[in-house]
Amino acid sequence: MDFLSSDALESLSSMEKISMIVDRVKEGDLLVIEGGLSPAEEAELIETTMREIDIEQFVGIDIFTLEKDERSFFGFSKKRKVGLTIIGPANVMKAVKKKSNFLSMIAEIGDSGASVH
Amino acid sequence: MREFFMRFLNKLLRRDEKLKIGLYGHPNSGKTTLANTMSQDWLGKPIGLVSNIPHETRSVYRQERVSIKQDGVELDFDIIDTPGIATKVDYKNFLEFGLSEDEAKERAKEATKGIIEAIKWLDDVTGVLLVMDATRDPLTQANITIIGNLEARKIPFVIVANKIDMEESNPDRIISVFPQHTVVPISALHGENTGELYMSMVRKFK
Prior knowledge:
Number of strands of chain B: 6
Structural class of chain A: alpha+beta
Strand content of chain A: 35-45%
Helix content of chain B: 25-40%
Oligomer: heterodimer
Shape of chain A: globular
Largest sheet of chain B: 6 strands, mixed
């Protein structure tokens, strides 16, 4: 499991970000990213994933996000912003329960099971 | 009613681009059933094949020059029926529907291409019907990604809470998850509440 800070991704272009994510997930890594991807990057990620699916080994990805409230500078308005993004191979991330501030998932690694809450 | 369509028509006449309404959503959410219902209502013929095996639609279907005739006003636009968008395609899921392994693998390969095609079409559509299966959890990454992209590209859309004819459907869950968007509960299969959907389309896509 890899944890990536938003600073680590900031210096990368969208293309570099997507290839890095897909390459790592294809190798079986589970990525926990601080912040989120832009809508265009999400669409690009799905497109790239579809190109990389090889039917036998890599069947795609699962993405989950946890959002947080963010207040504007003056504190008058607040909007939801992605706080954490979790991306992993679809055949590893088996079950997820999601509520607004809580995410529970089970990753199956080989014959053993690992649980992440 | 007539006023609505007149306003819609006037807006259309001022547009240089033709109105192209794309049907987006998860595999098996009922996009093609809805496209068929719309096409049947307005043209008297269906648009594509439907089945209960996910990813039945694996390439984009386009029905050109669909006309709504309402109160003497006629509107023309295209319906674009797209393959369901998903983040994963596992051929093993198709085996339980009785497909052979080879058929399932072929279907999976075609489905991945179809998803890429559907995403590319986001650049071309001028309005979207985002079809969700009201019996399932609407808060999925595919739905979030589609909505995020529609908002970023300023493409107007209506969320269609489909399959309300099914006992386990819960369109209110979709309404509560997306309170800022227009949600219309319908049954595309039985044509239930489609009149309300057409009115919402007129309001949103005008």
